[in-house]
Structures are given as structure tokens and as C-alpha cells.
Amino acid sequence: MANTQYLFWVMVGALTLLFIVVSAFVGLSRGSKQGFITFAVLFVVMLAGALYVRL
């Protein structure tokens, strides 16, 4: 069976890459400031979820 900590960090990395792609598309359509705000909000939500899962 796979190590759960390894799977956790793989999922965090995959979600971060997904957030970068989504933010890039938002940045292209609405402006770079809105894209950065989108990335920041998604990243903070992911970190809050990660802390909830880990604690």
C-alpha cells in the first residue's frame, strides 16, 4: 500500500499546478491582477483544507 504522506504531497503538487493553469486562463481573460488574486484565493483554500485534513 502506498504511503499516505507521499500521496498527500503528490495531491498538493497536482492541485497547485491546476491552480496555476486556472489562474493563467483567468489572467488572460480578465487581467493579470485578477489572475493573481484567483491563484492566491485557491491556494489559501487548499492550505486550509490541507491543515484540516492533517490536524
List the helices and strands and how they pair.
Elements (H helix, E strand, L loop, with lengths): L3 H27 L1 H23 L1
Helix pairs in contact: 1-2
What can you tell me about this protein's structure?
The chain is mostly helical and 55 residues long. It has one domain. The protein contains two helices and no strands. Helix 1 packs antiparallel against helix 2. The longest helix has 27 residues. The chain is elongated. The two termini are 22 Å apart. The model has no long low-confidence stretch (mean pLDDT 90).
Fraction of helical residues: over 70%
Q: Please count the beta strands (DSSP E, at least 2 residues each).
A: 0
- Given helix and strand content, the structural type is mainly alpha
Strand content: under 5%
Unreliable spans are: none
**In this structure, how is the largest beta sheet organized?**
none
Distance between the termini: 22 Å
Overall spatial form: elongated
Q: Element order, helices and strands?
A: HH
Number of helices: 2
Q: What does the radius of gyration come to? A: 13 Å
Oligomer: single chain
Total discrete domains: 1
Q: pLDDT average, as an integer? A: 90
Sum this structure up briefly.
This protein is an all-alpha fold and 55 residues long. The protein has 2 helices and no strands. It has one domain.
Characteristics of this structure?
single chain; 55 residues; mainly alpha; 2 helices; 0% strand; elongated
